[in-house]
Amino acid sequence: MSIRKIRERLNILLYGSKERVLSIFKILHLLISSISMLSLVIYYGYTFDSNTVKYFLRVIEFSFAFYILRFIIRFIYDFNPKEFIRTNRIEFALIIYLIIEGIVYNLVGKLAITLLFETMGVYGIGHYTVLIIQLSFFGFIIYEFTKDNEINPFYRIHPATVFISSFIVIILVGTGMLMMPEMTTHSKGMGFLDALFMSSSATCVTGLSLVDVHEYYTFKGQLVILILMKLGGLNIISFGAFILLASRLGVGVKQHELIEDFVNRDSILSTRGMLGRIIFWSVSIELIGALFLYFTWGVNIPEIEQNSDRIFYSIFHSISAFNNAGFSLFTDGMYNAGVQTNYAVHLIIAFLIILGAIGMASLFDIFSISKIRERYRNPWKKLEFGTKISINYTVLLILLGFVLFFLLEYDNSLKGKSTFGMIVTSFFQSVTTRTAGFNTVDIGSITMPVVILFAFLMFIGASSSSTGGGIKTSTLAVLWATIISTVRGKKHIELYKRTIDSELALKAFSVLLFFIVGNLIGIFVLTITEQELMAKESVTLSEIIFEEVSAFSTVGLSAGITSEVSDAGKIVLIFSMFIGRVGTLTVGFLVGRRVLSTNYKYPKGHTMIG
C-alpha cells in the first residue's frame, strides 16, 4: 500500500475527532501561552533562589515540549501535509531548531549555537545564546497567539486604531519591564514615569534619555531597550509601507472597509507577505552593519572587554542606527572618548542611518533583484517617483547640513581635528541630526546658527515608510513644488516631470500645519512646566525649543536638559514623542471616516491671500 493511501485512510480515521482534539489544543495553547509569557517576564525581571529558578525553567521546557507536540498533532490532522509545512515553514523551522538544541544540550550540556560560536573561537556568549533562544520562543508565542483565527476579527477595525493601539501596548509592556529590579543597577528598579519615558523614547525610536543607558541598566535592561527600538522601528516602516502600497492600488482613505479586508488578505501583496519582506531586509541590513562594527571597534574601549561585549555592542548600535533611534551603550554616546575619533565607526553608523531614513519602499526599489533586472532589461525604466524624491532630497539635506556645519563650526566644535576628522564629523552630524540623534560633538557648545540649522533638519526629518520622524522629505518636496508652481503662475503643480494632484498638496500642507501647531503647543506647555528651571537659568528658552522639536520629530538630540525637566515636562515630551511618531501617518486615516456623500460642491469663495 502506498504512503498516499495510508495517509488517506488515516485522515478518514481521524476525521471524526479532528475538531474536538484541535479545539482542546487551542484552549491549552491559550492557557500555556499566557503562563509561558508571564513566566519568562517574571524570570528575567526578578531575582529568585536556585529552586525557584529551576521551577521557571521547567515551565519553559514544558512549553517547548507542548508546542512541539501541538505542531505534530496539527500536522497529523491536516489533510495536505506538504501544504501545511509550506504554510507554516517558519514555525516548522523553529520547531526543528528547538528539537536540535534540546538533543545537543542533553548530550553535551551546551547549546548547539554556543558550540558553533566556540568552534569559531568566540567564547563567553553562553548566557547570550540561551537568552536569544528564549526570546525567540517568546516571539514565537506572540506570533502563534496573534495568528489565531479567533483573534483576527479584532483586526477588522480602523487601521489607524490598530497602529496607535499597537504602539501603546508596546510602550506599556516596555514600561512594566523597565520597572523590574533586574533591569537596572538599582535594587528598587525604575519609577513608573521614568520607565514610561524611556519606553516611549525607545519605542518611538527617539533616543531622548533620562539616564546613562550603560551605567543605569543591566544587560537585561539594555536588551529591553534594544527590543523596544526594533519593535518600534518595525512597526512604523511596516505600517508606512502598507499605506504606500494601498495608495498605489488606488485605495482611498474613505474606503477603509476595503483596506481592512486587504489587511487580512493572505497573498503576496498582503501586509503579512510585506511584513516578512520588511523583517528580512531590515534584519539583514542590521546584521551586516553589526558585522562591520564588530571588526571596527577599537581595542582601548573600557566598555568592550570581551568578544561577547563586542558582539552585543555591535548589534545594539546597528539596530539603533538603522532604526534611527539614537540610543548608545557608551556614556556620552558617540562623543565618548573611546569612539569619539573612530571615524570608521562613525561612517558605518551614518550609512546605516541613511539606509533606515530613505524608507523601505525606496530600498526595495533601488536594491531589489527583480527591480534591478527589470531596469537592466528595460533601460527606459527609471526609479519610481517616490524613490527619486527620497534620494534627491536626502542628498540635498545632507549636503546642506554638511557644508553649513563645517563652515559654522570650523573654529568651534571642529577645532583641533584633522581635515579628515572635520569632514567625517560634519557629515556624521548632518546625517544623524535629521533623523537619529547620535552626536560626536558637544551639542551644548554649538553656536546658535547651528542650533537653528539642527532644528530645521530635525523638523524636516526622514523619508516616507522609514524609521525616521519629521514632516518627511516627500512633504517638503510637494510643498516646494507647490510654492514654485504658484510663484511661476503655472496651472498645475509639477515635480520631476510629474503633475502633483491638488489633493496631495493639501495633505502636505496639512502635515506641515500639524507639525507646526504640535511643536508650538509643546513649547508653550514646556515654558509653563519649566518656569522654575528657566527662572534659575538652568534651562533657556532655546534649549526648550530644541528639546521639543527633537522630541516631536523623534530625533533625540538634546542640549543636555532631558534629565532636568520636571515630571510635568516629562509627560509633555512623552506625548510629543508619541504624537510625532504616529501623527503624520495616521492623521489622514483618523479624519478620513466615511461621509454620507461627496457628490456636492459649495459656491466658490474668494479672499485676499498675503
Beta-sheet strand percentage?
Answer: under 5%
Mean pLDDT value: 80
How are the strands of the largest sheet arranged?
1-2
Sheet/helix structural class:
mainly alpha
Number of strands: 2
Helix fraction by DSSP (H/I, runs of at least 4): 55-70%
- Unreliable segments (pLDDT under 50, ≥5 consecutive)? 149-155, 247-271, 591-596
What would you call the quaternary organization?
single chain
End-to-end gap: 88 Å
Keywords:
mainly alpha; 2 strands; 1% strand
Question: Could you please describe the fold and organization of this structure?
Answer:
The chain has a domain at 1-156. Helices cover 68% and strands 1% of the residues. It contains 24 helices and two strands. The protein has a two-stranded antiparallel sheet. Helix 13 (307-322) runs parallel beside helix 14, helix 17 (385-408) runs antiparallel to helix 19 and helix 21 (502-529) crosses helix 23.
Summed up:
The chain has 24 helices and two strands. The protein has 610 residues and is mainly alpha-helical.
Protein topology:
Blueprint: H1 3-45, H2 50-77, H3 81-87, H4 89-108, H5 112-119, H6 126-146, H7 159-178, H8 192-203, H9 213-216, H10 219-248, H11 256-264, H12 271-294, H13 307-322, H14 343-357, H15 360-367, H16 369-377, H17 385-408, H18 419-435, H19 448-460, H20 473-487, E1 493-495, E2 498-500, H21 502-529, H22 531-535, H23 541-552, H24 567-590
Antiparallel strand pairs: 1-2
Helix pairs in contact: 1-2, 1-6, 2-4, 7-8, 7-10, 7-24, 8-10, 8-24, 10-12, 12-13, 12-14, 13-14, 14-18, 15-17, 17-18, 17-19, 17-20, 18-19, 19-23, 20-21, 21-23, 21-24, 23-24
